[in-house]
Every structure is written in C-alpha cells, then in structure tokens.
Design brief:
10 helices; 70% helix
C-alpha cells in the first residue's frame, strides 16, 4: 500500500497512507530479542576495527540492542562505545584521539554519521508510529521524494560502475518487486527524516557528543 501511495496519487489516498505508515512504524520495532541481537551483531562487525577487543564489541552491542529495544538513544553513551569500536586505540596524554573513517561511495564515513542517521530514523519512525506527521506534510515530502528517487534510479547503474566498482553493492537493485517496494519505502523514511530537519539536528548532537568525549 505504501509503495502504491509513493508512485500514484489516486490508488491510495493520503489519509489511508498515514494509517499505513503508523502500522509500518509499529511493525518496525517488533522483532524478537534473538533477531535484534543478530542484526546488531552484524552492525558491530561491520563497524568494528579489526583491533577492537571483545569487550569493546560487546559494549557496543549492548548499547545498540538497548536503543533498538527501547527506541531511546543516549547520544553520549553511544558515541563513547562506537568511537572505541571504530577507533580502538589508547588515547595518548595531551594528544587528540586518532579517529578513522570507513570508505564509502561518497567519501569517508565517520562514526558520527552512523549515529546521526540512526537517531534521525528512530525519531522519524516514532513520529510515524504516533501519527505526528500530518497529511499535508506527507504529501509535501512525497513531492520532494519522487524526483529525487527517479534521479537516483536513473543514475544508479553508472554509480555502481564508478572506479573499480568496489561500491557496486551499495547501488545493486533488488531482484524482486517486493524488494524494490521495500527499498523505495525505506528511502522515503530517509527523505522524511531529512525534510523534517531530524538528520541535521542529529548530526549536530552527534558532533557535540564527539567534542565532549574529546575533552
């Protein structure tokens, strides 16, 4: 239903879509403890430096699991554990912490980027769950989303082949219609987070937490 609302103005009306977004947002957090643990473990392994210790990995996993379970994110605590996971080197006295960034298709990706995107998406899902975003705003963001998504769809084959193609997986198109619909709906949530100013606010909060940690 949400995918149909994204691509057509007549099949699913916005009042129906708003209720469907509520249902979708509620289902987003309904995973078992085992599935949450598996998902978080995969994220930890993706972000962890090879030198990260078991203790550092475990600390990050526990904080991430708590955030997924409760929907509440302690930015300072998350920054501390993910920074140690990302850059697990001892801090030298009177020296700034050495922080690495992971390579990404659009440039280096810092730990603050991951934190900001996670927090912004959590806040967006919470607002959808409680129907705090009115129909006018949903329609406005859909109008922003459509040309952006169409442009991305047109450019993704070229983006996948850029350079040596090492980031091709980022731009791979799902094989099934269901997969494409899920991808499009997920992309709208990201657009909504940006249009609501939540990504900018979360990025500022993540950078502020980084600076506090560095002191």
């Amino acid at each position: 239903m949400l995918y149909l609302w994204l691509i057509d103005d007549t099949i699913v009306l916005t009042p129906q879509a708003r209720r469907a977004w509520r249902t979708h947002a509620r289902a987003t957090g309904q995973t078992t403890a085992v599935r949450r643990s598996e998902n978080v473990r995969a994220i930890v392994e993706q972000l962890a430096h090879p030198s990260a210790t078991f203790k550092q990995r475990r600390a990050a996993q526990l904080v991430l699991e708590e955030g997924e379970r409760t929907g509440r994110i302690d930015i300072d605590r998350l920054t501390a554990v993910l920074t140690e996971l990302y850059s697990p080197w001892p801090v030298q006295p009177s020296m700034p912490r050495i922080e690495r960034a992971l390579p990404g298709p659009f440039g280096p990706v810092s730990v603050q980027h991951h934190i900001a995107m996670w927090k912004a998406r959590q806040q967006t899902v919470r607002r959808l769950r409680h129907e705090e975003i009115d129909e006018t705003e949903l329609d406005r963001v859909r109008a922003v989303y459509r040309p952006m998504w169409a442009d991305y769809q047109a450019r993704r084959p070229a983006m996948a082949s850029t350079g040596a193609g090492e980031f091709a997986a980022y731009f791979a198109e799902p094989d099934t219609m269901e997969g494409r619909a899920i991808e499009a709906v997920d992309a709208f949530v990201g657009t909504l987070a940006g249009e609501l100013g939540l990504i900018e606010a979360a990025s500022h909060a993540a950078e502020t937490a980084r600076l506090r940690l560095a002191r």
